[in-house]
Each structure stands twice: as C-alpha cells, then as structure tokens.
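The aim of this short unit is practical: by the end, you should be able to scan a pair of folded records and say something sensible about each. We start with the first protein, listed as its amino acid sequence and then its structure tokens.
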Amino acid sequence: MTNSHATYAAWSGMLPVEDTALAVTDTGGTGTPVVYLNGSYASRRHWRPVINALGPGWRHVTYDERARGHSNQSADYSFEACIRDLDAILKARKVERPLLVGWSYGALLGVHWAARNPDRVAGVVGVDGPYPYGWTDEADLEYIRRLSRRFGWALPMGRLVGNAARMSADQHADIAIEGHKLHAALEPALDGLTVPVRYVVASGEALGSKNNWQEHMRTTLNPVLARNPNLKISAKVASNHGTIVRKDFHAIAQATRELAALTRESR
C-alpha cells in the first residue's frame, strides 16, 4: 500500500528525550505512517506479527517506552511523560497525521493523544482498550500493589520477553494504579473524540483480573459507542487481553487497513 506521503529514510537508534533515551525504529518509505504504542510494560517486539501482516507498504514506527525494552531508565514514568515521549518521537521522525495503534495502556495513550491533538492524527486502533472503567477505591489499589510485590521475583524473567520494565515492583504498581484512575475518568475524552477509532476487543480474563472484571470492563464501552459515531468495534476476537497481539494480529492489521481506507475517503 502506498500513497502520496513524502519519502522518509529508514532509521533505528536511540533518541534522547529529557533525562533518558528511547529505542526507536522507523521503517521509512512512502506508506501511511503507523505508530505502535505498547502495553504498560511491553516492548516493540510484540508488534512484529502485526507489522508482518500489514507488510512493507506502510511506514512502521515502533519504540520502547522509558525503562522498557532497550530504552534507558528515567526519573519520570508518569502517563504525561509517555505523552511527551510520543510528541518527541513524532517531531524527531517528522511523522505527520499517523495512525496510532495501541494495546492496553498504549490504547489509552493513543486516545488521549487524539483527544488533545485531533488535527495531528488520522485515527486510532484500540487493541482491547481503552475502556471507561478502572479501579479507584483503596482496597482495589492495594490489591494491585500486593499483586505487583507478589510477582516481583518474576520481573527479571518478564524483561527477557518484553513483558516487564527495568523498574521495581512498586513502580510497576504505580503505573497500573495511574492507568486505572485515567481509565475511570476516560468517558468525557471518548465522548469528545472527533477522529475515527476502531476497537479490536478481546475475550476472557488475563493475569491479575478477578470476578470477570475484564469482560465487565468491556461492556462499559457500549454507551459511548451509542453516543459517538466516530468510535466503532472492528472485531471481537477469541484471545484474551494478554495474548491478543500475538494471536489475533490479523484482526489488528485489518482494523488498521479500515482506518487507512477511511482516511483516504475523507480527503
């Protein structure tokens, strides 16, 4: 797939941002730019099946967030730092009006970015997220802290496969807690979105979920879909939250194609 975008050179390396440096890969070319936004503690490696499914006719931009993958550590792991990192990457790589494809926490980042910068983004693919629901009472937040500490011993192994960051267990918990609070307050942002968003929705539960929470969480999207026609479900797939990118990459690629076609039609 090609279009009228200018030709950009491929590049891979470390991009300095504030007190850190981010590992970035840009395949370049003339295709529609797609920027991939990782899950909370994930790395670029998870997107390989989606990138392969879409093929070389697109401009694929992937990066590791602070302390994830091959990126350096930082003093700031907040959501706003993630917003600034995306800013820096788009500016440095001269990426204009990309499609943002985000999984979980990355989907939350993509939607917030689109809400703040509607003229700078062509659309968002939300891979099992974001949903306007999150844990906010102290008992649930303490559960997140306990869960992170309980599995803290496994963090070094998780880093080897791109499922954990070079952070302490408490720092992992801080990111999850902030994410829950942001999801709980998400409805106004979803209602106000003026760019197209396509959801690829998972099924079932995953690690850390309890009381069928994730499937209930997905139902909270229904009223928003009824109110805002810019948001639609592209596919409901069989995999769960943790396996969706690996097992249902074809559905993610198809949702990306749908958005690209919609963008061409609106020109």
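Turning to the second protein, read its sequence before its tokens, just as you did above.
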Amino acid sequence: MKGVKKQHLPEKQCAVCGRSFSWRKKWEKVWEEVKYCSEKCSRGRKKTAGD
C-alpha cells in the first residue's frame, strides 16, 4: 500500500459494533482475516458468543 493516500485505503465493517475501519500497516499481511476494529470488540465477541 505504499504511496496510497489515507482517503483511498480499503475499509471494512467491524463484525461486533458495525463501525467502519481502515487498513493499517500492521494488518498488511493479514488484512483478509481482520474482522474487528479493536481489541475491545475482539474481546466483546467472546462474551456475546457464550450467551
């Protein structure tokens, strides 16, 4: 994604809160697997799955 302006980065919807989030450098190799916008949403998923 070198040389791409921020407004042109890919986006996804969070599976828990529905908020949209943009591609980050740390997700470069695993972007297809990223489902949650934050650690909080990732942890929240586990709590709601047990109900």
